[in-house]
Specification:
2 copies of one chain form a homodimer. In chain A, 28% of the residues lie in helices and 22% in strands. Chain A is α+β, with helices and mostly antiparallel strands. The two termini of chain A are 34 Å apart. At the A-B interface, helix 1, helix 2, strand 1, helix 4 and strand 4 of A face helix 1, helix 2, strand 1, helix 4 and strand 4 of B.
């Protein structure tokens, strides 16, 4: 069932870095994004793939897990094996909603393959744009890090204090509080 | 395979309106969005559900298929059976990428159930916000129309002239030109 794939698709931040992901696999994932909806069918997004060659540079532009004060990103050996950078061609139209659609297709496709990853909006865009030699009209929207996950992520209910910050326990299990269905359904009556 | 679900999830604009969608089904779909990633886990999105009671009002706020000059939206009898309006609580953070993620979960879940729909960014937000009695800090990001699809949508390659406008043939089959994988992969070398 699709719900199982949704549940499998957690945000992972530690990986078996030695397990590589091929360029062909990355292309298969981008093809899922290609076949997804796009506002006014403009298809303004472009995708940069790194299956190794630019991993170090891209890693250095990402801010990891802001709520974990003792975690500045994964150590060598636990870093992502690949990255897909989602870029919007502003000459073709807007891209934020479209990037969310594309990234979801990519990450659900990765989950089906036993891979996992994490979306980054907190990116040093100036630095990464220089690495990628992006022309002026092309703007980085998101970076997706990918690998075979090396951590356990569990969902739990948001407590009455309303705190939504994820946290790690002593066994390095990553806990993510989720709001209830009742809480997110808006009733205007 | 997940790719089959991606392919099944086309943007539909004509439906069997007499086939209703229950509130419970809409809640199941929103639950998929609830369990999806959210930037910094803020979960700033709220979801308004209409399984009939507000359909006419919501329909009147949507702009349908801008490229089809002879189609001003579906006729009575072919209109959506339900709507999910995605609203961002701006007090909790930003929402465009998150709305794209949420809408994708909802529409893929709908496709699995034999339903289909269409995302709308072209919404008369002022009018709809008044219908929904939204407070100042809550902003409509997207409307998703849902129903059992009554049309055939086919993908085709973008032609050399680069035209991405969808079109309808004499049999009312809806054609959607998609860019090639080579065209959307950005190579900085």
């Amino acid at each position: 069932m699709f719900r199982d794939l949704i549940l499998k698709n957690r945000s992972y931040r530690r990986f078996y870095e030695s397990e590589s992901i091929s360029g062909d696999t990355l292309k298969e994932l981008v093809d899922l994004a290609r076949l997804s909806p796009s506002g006014a069918n403009r298809q303004s997004l472009k995708f940069h793939l790194s299956a190794g060659d630019m991993n170090d540079e891209i890693f250095g532009t990402l801010s990891w897990a802001g709520y974990l004060k003792d975690f500045d990103g994964p150590e060598p050996g636990e870093r992502p094996s690949a990255y897909i950078t989602i870029i919007n061609d502003n000459d073709l139209g807007g891209g934020e909603v479209n990037a969310g659609i594309a990234a979801t297709g990519i990450l659900l496709g990765a989950a089906e393959k036993g891979l996992g990853g994490c979306m980054f909006g907190a990116v040093d865009r100036k630095k990464l744009a220089a690495y990628l030699k992006l022309p002026e009209h092309m703007e980085i929207v998101l970076v997706i890090a990918l690998g075979r996950p090396k951590e356990t992520v569990v969902l739990e209910d948001v407590k009455p204090d309303g705190d939504i910050k994820y946290w790690r326990d002593a066994n390095r299990v990553h806990h993510v509080p989720k709001r209830s269905l009742e809480d997110i359904i808006y009733n205007c009556k």
